[in-house]
Amino acid sequence: MLRTTGLSKHFGGVYAVRDVGLAVGEGELRGIIGPNGAGKSTLFNLIAGHLRPDQGTIDLDGRPLGRLPAHGRAALGIAIVFQAARVFRGMTVRENVMVGAHAGTRAGFWTAALRLPRHSREERLIRDRADAALARVGLTGWAGRPAESLPLGQQRSLQLARALCGGPRLLLLDEPASGLRAAERRALADLIAELHRDGLTIMLVEHDVAMVTRLADRITVLDLGRVIADGTPERVRSDPRVVAAYLGEEARP
Ligand SMILES: Nc1ncnc2c1ncn2[C@@H]1O[C@H](COP(=O)(O)OP(=O)(O)OP(=O)(O)O)[C@@H](O)[C@H]1O
C-alpha cells in the first residue's frame, strides 16, 4: 500500500532520514523503532506531507504522492496522530472528534474547529461518524464532557477517535503510549490490536519495544536516519546491528 524509495531529509548538515526504502502492505501493522533522534518522527512527517523530502519518493497504492500537501494526503486516507498531541480545550469530547471528520478539507477542518454553522444534515452525519469513532475507542460515555477532563490515557484514545473519524486507510501513530501508566498502555495496545484485526493499515512508532514486538507484523529499525534492519519482530530483535544501536544509545550521555 505504501512504498518509500530513497527517501532523505536533512536539517542543516544532519540527515534526519537517509535513503529510506520501505514497503508496507495492506492491513499490515508495521512497527518503527530506533534510538532517540533516529528519524522516526521525521519519516512520519514526510509520509503525512508535513515535511518535504530532499530526495526520494512516496507512493500510495502505486501512485506517487509527489508534492501533495498534508490535507490532500489526509483526503486520500493518511491520518497521523502526532507525538504528545493535545486535545482541543474548551470543546467536548465529541466536538474534538468531529474536527477529524473533515480533516481532509481545510474548509471542513476550520468549520469544525471554529464551530461555524453547517448544513444540519451534514452536521448530523458527522456527528454520527464521531459517535461511531468514540464507540470504537470506548469513549461513548464521555462524549458530552469537556475534553480536558479526560485522564491522559483516554485523551490518547480521543486522538485515535479523531483520526478514525476521517475514515483513514493508513494510520500513523507516533509514540501513542508515551507518558501512559502500565494499565493505560495495555488498554491502548489492545485497542491498536483491534484496529489491526479490523484490517486497518497501521504504522506505529513506539519506544516501548516490547509493545511493538507484541503488536507488529514487521518492524523497521532506524538509526541515524537509515534503515538498519527490517523483518519479523523475532528476526529484528536478534539482529546484531539492532542490539548494537540500542546498546550504543545506553552508552550515550
Ligand atoms: N525541525 C527540525 N530542525 C532541525 N533538526 C531536526 C528537526 N526535526 C528533527 N531534527 C533532527 O533530526 C534528527 C531526527 O529527529 P526525529 O525527531 O525524526 O527522531 P526520532 O527518531 O523521532 O526521535 P525521538 O525518538 O527522540 O522522538 C534528530 O537529530 C533531530 O535533532
Automatic annotation (TrEMBL):
Cleavable signal peptide: none
PROSITE patterns referenced in this protein's UniProt entry, alphabetically: ABC_TRANSPORTER_2
Keywords: ATP-binding, Nucleotide-binding, Transport
Keyword Ubl conjugation in record: no
Superkingdom of origin organism: Bacteria
InterPro entries named in the record: AAA+_ATPase, ABC_AA/LPS_Transport, ABC_transporter-like_ATP-bd, BCA_ABC_TP_C, P-loop_NTPase
SUPFAM superfamilies: P-loop containing nucleoside triphosphate hydrolases (SSF52540)
Chain ranges of the ABC transporter domain: 2-249
Gene Ontology terms: cellular component: plasma membrane
Gene3D superfamilies per record: P-loop containing nucleotide triphosphate hydrolases
GO molecular function: ATP binding; ATP hydrolysis activity
Keyword ATP-binding set for record: yes
PANTHER family: ABC TRANSPORTER ATP-BINDING PROTEIN, CONSERVED COMPONENT OF ABC TRANSPORTER FOR NATURAL AMINO ACIDS-RELATED
Protein name: Branched-chain amino acid transport system ATP-binding protein
Organism expressing this protein natively: Actinomadura viridis
